[in-house]
Structure formats: C-alpha cells, structure tokens
Write a structure and sequence with these properties.
Radius of gyration of chain A: 19 Å
Mean pLDDT of chain B: 93
Largest interface: A-B, 54 and 55 residues
CATH architecture of chain A: Alpha-Beta Barrel
Structural class of chain A: alpha/beta
Oligomer: heterodimer
Number of helices of chain B: 16
Low-confidence stretches of chain A: none
Distance between the termini of chain B: 65 Å
Largest sheet of chain A: 8 strands, parallel, barrel
Helix content of chain A: 25-40%
Number of strands of chain B: 17
Number of domains of chain B: 3
CATH topology of chain A: TIM Barrel
Number of strands of chain A: 10
Largest sheet of chain B: 8 strands, parallel
Strand order of the largest sheet of chain A: 3-4-5-6-7-8-9-10
Strand order of the largest sheet of chain B: 10-9-8-7-6-3-12-11
CATH class of the largest domain in chain B: Alpha Beta
Strand content of chain B: 15-25%
Low-confidence stretches of chain B: none
Distance between the termini of chain A: 27 Å
CATH topology of the largest domain in chain B: TIM Barrel
Shape of chain B: globular
CATH class of chain A: Alpha Beta
CATH superfamily of the largest domain in chain B: Dihydropteroate synthase-like
Structural class of chain B: alpha/beta
Mean pLDDT of chain A: 95
Shape of chain A: globular
Order of helices and strands of chain A: EEEHHEHEHEHEHEHEHHHEH
Number of helices of chain A: 11
C-alpha cells in the first residue's frame, strides 16, 4: 500500500516583495532581493511553491557597539569604525544579499546625530555597495521622525526597506516611503493583533499592503526565541489561509539579539564548561536563524560572517534541489 | 480527536442491562466519551468492539520509553503540529554516537562522559539522553555489555544483523535499549527480538511507503513499541518526511505512523551538524543522534529544545524572593524585577556583565515581564513593597536605595510611600541592557 502524502494545499500565497532598484528601475543598485510568494509552510516542496529563497542581510552600525564580543571584533573589528567600509566588506567578502544599516548614532543618548549627518551616512553606504539597503532609525520616536524623511529622500528611487513604523509612530515614515518609493518595515512587539493594526494603519495612509515587510520583534536563542518563533509560525499560517492583513514577508533581527546573550559572549575563561567561545557564539547566532527559517522568516539580519555562511548552507540544503 | 458518544454507542451491546452501573448503553457511551468510565465496566462488550474502541481511544502518537530507571527517555505522545496550538510534551531525546570498535577502557570512559554531561542554564540542568552504540560482530556484542554496565543513560543498539543483536540483547535487555533497526531485510527477526525482550524497535524504510509497510509488519509480529526512521538523510527530505509522519498520525490517524521518530543530523562539519539537529528538534524528531557532542554544540541544541518545548501557556518562572548575583555585601545595590525567568535571567546576565555584585528582589508576577506585569497590575507599588519587606533585604544592606526598572518609573512615589518613606527609589534603566553602565557609573550607596 503506497503511502499518500498528507498534502494540505493552500489557495493563497505570501506577498512577494522586491527590495532595491537597478538602473533600469530608477535606482543604482547592482542587484535586488525578492522574497515571499510561498504557497506552503517553509520548505515543504511537496505541497506548494517557494519561488524565492530567504535573504540574508548583514547589519552595520554607524556607531559600533561598546564591548564588541571577541569573535565579532576578530571578524569586523578592523572596519567597524567606518560604516561604509564595513558594509563593503560584508558584501565583497562575506556575500551579504543586503545591508541593514542601523542609525543608532542618531539616538539622543548616543551621539544625537542630525538628520543631515544620518543622510550622509546613508549616502556613503549606498555608494559603497551595490546591494539593496534596509535602513533603521535609532528607535527614539521623535528623533526618528526627524531623521528618517531626510534619509528616505537621499535614497529616493532606490527601493529601500525603511524602518520602522509602529502602532504609536507610523505617519512620518509611511509618508516618506510613499513619497520616495520605498518599502516599509512595520513593527509590532510579539503581538499578532497589533501587527495587523499597524499594517492597516499604514495602508489607510495610502501605502499598499504589498509594500510592507513585518518585523515582529525578535528574541534570541534562550531569550524568548520561542515567542518570535510561534508568532511567525502563526503569521505564516494566517497568510496561507488568506488573511491579507498578515500576508507580508517577515524579517528577524538575529545578530544583535543573539550576541547580547552571555551564552554567545562569554569567553572561555568565564565559562570553561561551555566550550570553544568563538564556535559557541557563531552557533548561537546560526541556530537562532535556522529556527526562524522553519518558522517562516524571509529576511535574516545577521552579524557574524561565519554564521552567515553556515546559514547560507542551511538554506541551500532546504530549498528545492534542482533536478 | 476522540470518538463521540454515538460512535462508541454503535459498538456497545445496546441491551441497557445496567451491569456497568449506568442505566443505559447510551448513557454509558457518553461517559466513555468523556473519559469518566472505562470500557472494562461492561462485561458484555464483544472482543471486536473492544479492539475497535481501544484502538480509537489510544493516543494518536504512542508514548515510547527507551531505557529503564531514573533517566529513562520518554518520547512521543504529541498531540499537535504547532506548539502554539497547545504545547509539545516530550522533548526530543539527544543521543551521541559511540563507536563499538573502541578499546573497552576508552569505550567505558566515553560512555561515562556522556552520562555526566550537565550544563546549567536558566536554573535548569541540561543533559544528554542516550548513547547510540554502533558497530559490527563480536566487537559489538562485547561493547554492548560495557555500555550496559557503564552507561548512566539509556542506549540505542545500532546493528542490523539479528544474530548479533540477539547476542547483545541477551546481555543487556533488562536495560531496555532501543533496537536499531528493523529494515526490509531483517524485519521479522528484529521484531521477534523486540517482542522477546520487551524493547522498543526502530524501523527504517527507504521511503515513507516502505516505512509504513515495515511498521505494520513489526506490529503484526508483536513489536508494539516502535520508533520511525524514514531513511531520509538530507534536511529538505527529513523535514518533508517528519511533517508527513506527524500529520498522517494526527490528522488522519494513520496507525503505522502513530509513533515518535528518530533522525540523524549530518552536516558538512560540526556547525552544520548543529543546524541540522536544530531543524529536526524544531520539526518533530523524537530522538536526534549526534556524531559530535562538543559543549558549545550541546549548549545551543539543549537551548533550542528548551525553547521549542516550553509550554506557551506557562511561561517559565522562578520563585519570588531575594537573590544574590555575584557575592553582594551590605553596600551592594538592590534591584527589583519580576519572576518571569526570561526577565530575571536577562537582568542577572547584565548584572554579571557589570561586575558589580547585587541583590535582586524578585516579585511574583505570574511569569510576566515588567511592562506586561505592570499593565496587568501584578507589578505595583503594593506588590513590590510587600516583597521588599518580606524578603529581608533591609537586614542585608546598610543603605536604603531601591533600583526600579525604568519602564515603571511612574511607580516611584507610591512605592516610597508604601515602604513608609524608609527607602529611596532610584529609577534604573528602561532596558536590562542599560544595567552595566548604570551600575558602573550611576550607582553609589552614598548620598
């Protein structure tokens, strides 16, 4: 008796979203990234399509973190003071599909950089690399409303992914996205209903749902990973059952969340029982990313080049094999 | 997905004799459906009906026990495809391959090491669950004896020659090892061994159809405790098969697949092995068998398992009370936080990173984080004050300064009042990540 695969066909698909614009499309990017379009749960090729592979963005910061963990220091310590050089290294040497630029220096508690300074940073990174950009503000609502319109403007036509729109602060960034033709990162704190709400609010301003990517807050391995995992899994199931307000691709902020954990940071002298420190930190990041791939993440924002390589291999092994 | 009362009623004698203690067969059927009665109470039920009803009331995925004693491994008995639907119940067993060809002394040492692995994380001790002994011929039989004697954890016997397996089992069957594996070549003999020794049997197909066939054959031959291996060894295929097996068992009640599974992560290297193992832990494997088990690999995999198998309805909590982080003294800072373990252990990590020892007053917020607990009125001036007074921190420190999470700064005034103006409330950082710089620069017991 041959076993019949228990196929569960879905009639709907996750939205397909392209980030980046080439010269033909009015931008200057040398490559673009397209994610989404799935008609099944992640990597279940027997019952649906997965037309695009998940993308890996590498994060660069305009102010490098204090107390950078050892393995990160070793990997990018030489360039992390120069955001454009750092971005270039991520693309040229580490093969990042995208650059995720986080403008932490704008934060009033950090360097309180002006909109103009931030815009210059965006321009410098844009000129340094040919891949699409994700641009994040500093997380302080008022300051972000000041800097993001200018950052959006200098990148007009490049079809970046701009973040983030939240339930309490979405108008300015949404308007900038509409004006300069970018995609929008809509953020909600591990809450599906708030996520829907944000998506609806920005669409009511005239930004089409098809131009949104969702960021549902990320917990690193051991620090709330399971919350993000289940939120993303539930969201993917909602998309497959035709909930148009939750059909957008999803992004996870893996690198910065993982490298906060002492399991990733502690050196061997501090935690001899946990084994090789470099391998451990890299595994911590890569493993978190892999779990999120199974939950349905489309864009992984990562830090360590070896973790990136490992996760790229994992994606290779899970996407449909040719022939 | 149990039977309805009417489904059960159809199988009963319908005589309304009352011998079961319930006046009518229909009422008895209703009680059965609600699991308030047992079929044994009916003396007249036919054997056929009994078999049908027993089968239908059995869990869709059987609970399988590997090993005996304190560290026996229980897998299976899962009820959902996604953890948010309910929870996953029996965490994936993590086993390590051991080569039967090792010299006896080295083998003994290796096996003992596996049993001793214990990593501490968020208040839990994380351990390996099994040894997977692999080898051939007489060497395998001898090694099985060594493992049976030395192993603190259950073991899996990996050899496909029924004659060799039979000899190995004679020496160690009372330890209830998992037999690996029954295949198309040896299924009758392996199933007979499993039945004879009362051990669980893993069956390995070359695809899902052959796996279903082997499962039926094994059950037909009296091997009732099975573990399934679809034979797939590449991540995409394993994922597809694990999903198909779980779905067929739960949604279609496909009996041949009503058992937990075993998977063998490979990967290009040690890092790749971790990624495959993490994938299989997330997606339904009952046991994963690792080739390597370095502590850094295990820390990541144990944590994946811990996360995936956490009950979404019951956040991990710690006891309320006073905690020492480092070795605090009478001048050390006192921080207030909630008993959600994620919150507490994040704070603990950040205090450790600051290298400033501290006291932590943990308030019972039913396992919710600072903001959630505050919104739900479980983290209030009253509850905090009560815990500060009850935990005795006042006798541990000379100063009277209490550091409150920045997110609930609004509680400061009220909290000082509740504490009879004995303590000064200092507003700390909003995020735990701000603790190191706060303790190093802003904290002082003076003034």
């Amino acid at each position: 008796m041959p076993f019949e695969m228990p196929v569960e066909k879905s009639s709907s698909a996750v939205n397909t979203v392209t980030i980046g614009a080439t010269a033909d499309e009015g931008g200057t990017r040398l490559s673009t990234v397209t994610v989404g379009g799935e008609t099944a749960l992640p990597f279940l090729h027997f019952e649906g399509e997965m037309p695009h592979r998940p993308a890996i963005a590498m994060e660069v910061l305009d102010v490098p973190p204090e107390e950078w963990p050892g393995p990160m220091q070793e990997a990018v310590g030489d360039v992390c003071g120069d955001v454009a050089g750092w971005a270039r290294k991520c693309v040229d040497e580490f093969g990042a599909d995208m650059i995720s630029l986080h403008l932490v220096g704008a934060h009033p508690d950090q360097q309180d950089r002006s909109a103009e300074e931030c815009a210059q940073t965006v321009k410098a990174v844009m000129e340094a690399v040919g891949v699409p950009l994700i641009i994040w503000g500093c997380g302080e609502a008022d300051k972000d409303n000041e800097i993001m319109p200018r950052c959006s403007e200098v990148a007009a036509g490049e079809n970046c992914l701009l973040g983030t729109a939240t339930e309490d602060n979405y108008r300015t960034i949404t308007a900038a996205c509409i004006a300069d033709n970018h995609k929008l990162l809509a953020e909600a704190p591990l809450d599906i209903n708030i996520q829907k709400q944000v998506n609806i609010l920005v669409s009511e301003m005239g930004l089409d749902l098809s131009r949104i990517v969702m960021y549902q807050a990320t917990g690193g391995l051991g620090y709330g990973m399971e919350y993000a995992y289940s939120i993303m899994e539930r969201t993917r199931l909602a998309a497959l059952s035709a909930d148009r307000t939750l059909s957008m691709p999803m992004l996870a902020l893996v690198g910065p969340e993982c490298w906060k954990a002492k399991e990733a940071r502690a050196d061997e002298a501090t935690a001899p029982e946990w084994g090789d420190a470099a391998e451990r930190g890299i595994a911590w990041e890569a493993t978190t990313a892999t779990c999120f791939l199974h939950a349905g993440t489309h864009i992984l924002v990562m830090w360590h080049p070896r973790a990136v390589e490992i996760v790229r291999n994992t994606i290779d092994s899970l996407v449909k094999q040719e022939g | 997905m149990g039977l309805t009362g009417l489904d059960i009623f159809k199988q009963l004698p319908k005589t309304n004799c009352g011998d079961c203690g319930v006046p009518t067969c229909l009422a008895f059927a209703m009680k059965l459906a609600q699991k308030q009665a047992s079929l044994d109470q009916c003396p007249h039920v036919s054997d056929d009906a009994k078999a049908a009803l027993d089968g239908a009331s059995a869990p869709p995925i059987k609970l399988i026990t590997v090993g005996a004693g304190e560290r026996k491994l229980e897998i299976g008995n899962e009820t959902v495809l996604f953890r948010h639907e309910e929870t996953f119940y029996h965490p994936t067993g993590i086993a390590v391959l051991v080569d039967a060809g090792l010299p006896a002394e080295e083998l003994a040492k290796r096996v003992e090491e596996v049993g001793e692995v214990a990593l501490e994380r968020v208040g839990q001790t994380l351990r390996l669950d099994a040894v997977a002994l692999r080898g051939e011929g007489e060497a395998f039989v001898g090694a099985a004896k060594v493992v049976a004697e030395k192993s603190a954890v259950p073991f899996i016997l990996m050899n496909e020659d029924p004659e060799v397996m039979g000899k190995a089992l004679e020496a160690c069957a009372e330890k209830k090892p998992l037999i690996y594996a029954g295949t198309a070549e040896n299924i009758e003999a392996m199933a007979a061994l499993a039945k004879e020794h009362g051990c669980a049997l893993a069956v390995r197909g070359s695809d899902l159809s052959s796996l279903a066939e082997l499962s039926e054959k094994a059950q037909g031959a009296g091997a009732t405790d099975l573990v399934l291996d679809s034979g797939a060894r590449t991540p995409a295929e394993v994922l597809a098969n694990e999903t198909a097996i779980r779905r067929a068992a739960l949604r279609k009640r496909f009996r041949p697949f009503g058992f937990p599974t075993i998977a063998f992560p490979r990967g290009n290297d040690a890092q790749g092995e971790v990624q495959e193992a993490a994938s299989y832990i997330a997606k339904y494997a009952g046991i994963v068998v690792l080739e390597k088990a370095d502590p850094w690999q295990l820390l990541a995999l144990f944590t994946v398992r811990q996360n995936i198998y956490t009950d979404p309805q019951k956040p991990l909590q710690i006891e309320e009370g006073l905690y020492e982080i480092g070795s605090p003294d009478e001048n050390s800072p006192v921080l207030v936080t909630t008993n959600f373990s994620l919150t507490y252990f994040t704070v603990e990590g950040d205090v450790e990173a600051s290298r400033v020892p501290a006291w932590a007053v943990v308030v019972d917020t039913e396992g919710t984080s600072v903001l959630t607990a505050w919104a739900a009125e479980k983290f209030t001036a009253e509850t905090i004050a009560e815990r500060v007074k009850a935990c005795g921190v006042g006798s541990k420190v000379k100063h009277r300064k209490l550091i409150l999470p920045g997110h609930v700064a609004v509680l400061s005034g009220k909290l000082e009042e509740e504490l009879g103006l004995e303590w000064t409330v200092v507003v700390g950082p909003r995020e735990s990540s701000g603790i190191p710089s706060f303790l190093r620069t802003a904290w002082s017991p003076e003034g």
